Amino acid sequence: MAGSRPALRVATRGSALARLQTDAVARRLGLDVEVVVVQTTGDRRADVPIHTLGGTGVFVKEVEDAVLRGDADLAVHSAKDLPSTTAPGLVLAAVPERADPRDAVVGSTLDTLPAGALVATGSVRRRAQLANLRPDLTFAELRGNIGTRLDKAAGFDAVVIAAAALDRLSAADRIGERLDPALVLPQVGQGALAVECRADDDTTRALLASIDDPAAHAAVDAERAFLERLGGGCNLPCGALATLAGPSIAIEAVLATLDGRVLVRARATGTDATAAGREVASRLLDEHGGRALLEDVA
Fold first, then answer.
1. Residue 291 burial (CB count, 10 A)
2. Which of 11, 210, 233, 242 would you label with 182, given CA atoms 20 to 30 Å apart?
3. Does any domain span residue 107?
4. Distance of CA 204 to CAs 44, 69, 215, Å?
5. Which residues are catalytic?
6. pTM (2 decimals)?
7. Which strand (E) or helix (H) includes residue 18?
8. CA gap 177, 109 in Å, rounded
9. How far apart are CA 196 and CA 116, in angstroms?
10. pLDDT tens digit string along 77-126?
C-alpha cells in the first residue's frame, strides 16, 4: 500500500514528544510519511506563561495552517492543545486509542510534599486544583519541552507533567505519583492524540478512519464540547474527563478560582458525547456557581 501513493506529508511540532507521536501515527497507518516540522507560537515563546499567550491554540495554529495551505496532508497534535472548535476547512479525522489521561507528580508524591513545598507547573488548572487540596503549597512557572522540564525538576520540590508524555518518552520511572482524577481532573483531551486533515480530502480522511478509536474520539468530543460551552482554554482553571461504558458516556468536570480557594465539580451522563459535554458545563455554570467563578477569573 505504501507504494500506491506518495508518502503522506505530516505536519507536527518539532519536539521529541511531537515526533514520537507522529511516528506512532505513521506506524498505525502502515505508511511512509514525510514529516513537515512547524514551529508554533507556543514553541517560539517558551519563556512566557502559556495562559498569557491567548490560551488554547498556541501550539496548533501554525501546524493547522500548513495543512490548510496544502504543505501537508494531515497534522498530528496532542489533543489537549486543540481549541474547543475545529478550524474551518479541517476535520478531526482520527483520535487513536487514548493513553493515560492523568497528571503525574515528578520528584515526590502529593502526600509526602513538605509544608510550603514549591511545585512547578505552567498550568493554571493544575495550580488551582493542587492549591485546593494543599493550600500550603507554593508554585513556580514551568515551560519548555518535557526534557527541559525534567531537567529543571531538581530545582523544585516537585513538578507536575502529563503522565502520557512521560510514558511516551520512556520516562515513567521519574513519576512519583499519578494523580487520581477524583483529586485532580486532567486537561481536556489529555493523553489523547488528535489527527486532523482537510475536510475535502476524502482519501486522507478514509485512511485516518482506519486508526480512529470511537471511544477515545467520543471522549475527546465530549470534553471539547464542555470547553466550548464554558468558553475557556489554557487561561482558565478547568478540567474534564469523559469515560464510556457501552453506549453511555459519563463526563466529570471542574472549575475553580485561580487561587483554588473555590472549586466546583459537576457530572453528566448520556448517549451523545457533545450533548453530555455541554450539559456538564451548563451544570457548572448554572447550578454550582460557575458563572461567578468565571467573573473572578476574568
1. 12
2. 233
3. yes
4. 30, 15, 21
5. 80-81, 125-126, 143, 149, 234
6. 0.91
7. helix 16-29
8. 5
9. 43
10. 999 999 999 999 999 999 999 999 999 999 999 999 999 999 999 899 99
